[in-house]
Amino acid sequence: MSAQDIADRAGLSVTLVRRLLRVPEQDQVANIARTTADAILGIPVPARGEPSAPGLIGSTEASCLLADLARAGWPAAALALRLGVNPASIAEVRERRPRLHLDLALRIRRLHRELISLDPVSQGIRPADAARTRTAAARRTTRP
User: Fold this and answer.
1) Are residues 63 and 96 part of one domain?
2) Which residues fall within 8 angstroms of residue 22, CB to CB, at 6 or more apart?
3) 59 pLDDT exceeds 80?
4) pTM of this prediction?
């Protein structure tokens, strides 16, 4: 992993990580704050075969969760608004984009947990939009 990869995953500045990666002069001890050490030591090492780009994971689970929400009647625009992304991003992930950022995958998982048991119409989604979304989701699952 590069210093930039470590910084991105740990939420630290790349300058700080580079400073920590330097070999200290002889008889010098590097002072590292506990929160910095915890942030760096808490980075999970990517498994073999996982996407090599930093912070990217496979999109299979997120795609299934978004398809599940679509079958429940949640339109992509409403999901995108709640996730803070573009509706086109939701459609791309749902249609099996090969990988996505770990942060977005975790937000999708959390959103699915919150919304799957709720009726979209009771949450302000127009009944026609919910019905259209359900119909489109059913059509997508019956594709050859």
Assistant:
1) yes
2) none
3) yes
4) 0.62
